[in-house]
């Protein structure tokens, strides 16, 4: 509020500096141009008022009476852009929670397709973020077909564990569940709940 009211409190004399500050703060050429314009107007007004010419004095007075409210109104009009209102952190948290729930819903929808129509799931490339696709499955990974680098990005997994999964898969065939994969590949039990949230096992 203080920034915006400076032009009013100083009869317009602080308007150029006010907008120059805004230009630097926001990195805006528009505010810089405004500062230059107000500066030229202020210089012209001062020059006109410091003469003995009655016409120029009247002109300078008109400039003063014009720039004073104009600069004040301009500052108040853009103050929210110069000093944007910060969104409380709690709002960011709420958005993050809603987004996480939304992604969980996408995974549930994709799992339903996997269970009801595996062929369609293959066609939609569910669980295959490594290939081009249009369907959003919420971050699922098909542990039976995804490459090692995708499996390694799953929660709790490492490159070594992912290579172990792929090697076992290539040698012995696909898995039917996360529990089977964990036992066959000797994965740490602690990561099974995390893997269960994101893995699918298409035939």
UniProtKB/TrEMBL annotation:
Pfam families referenced in this protein's UniProt entry, alphabetically: HHH_3
Q: What residue intervals traverse the membrane?
A: 6-24, 31-49, 55-78
Query: Per UniProt, which keywords does this protein have?
Result: Membrane, Transmembrane, Transmembrane helix
Domain of life per record: Bacteria
Q: Known Gene3D superfamilies for this protein?
A: AF1531-like domain (1.10.150.280)
Q: Does the keyword Heme apply?
A: no
Protein's UniProt name: Helix-hairpin-helix domain-containing protein
